[in-house]
Vegetative storage protein (Glycine curvata), 108 residues
Amino acid sequence: FGFKTIPEECVEPTKEYIHGGQYQSDSKTVNQQAFFYARELEVRDNDVFLFSIDGTVLSNVPYYSEHGYGVERFNSTLYDEWVNKGVAPALPETLKNYKKLVSLGFKI
């Protein structure tokens, strides 16, 4: 990507984006669009809908909020330890979409 951390002056706007409602709104929009696409498909017995777990289904926000929202250099050991605790919450809009997709007959 060309950078190891985000600039210090980007921390507050990043926090505002995440906690101020825009992140949730963007997540809702993306999930709605995925659902609108999926509901137009003819679902067969073996059709699946794939999600990327990390950052799409499970939120990394608690980890990054504890580690400067990207201003700290990424530490894969600390991140892996956090992931292995199994405390990452589901992203609310993705969870709603998951349930809707299952109701359409998709296997996840």
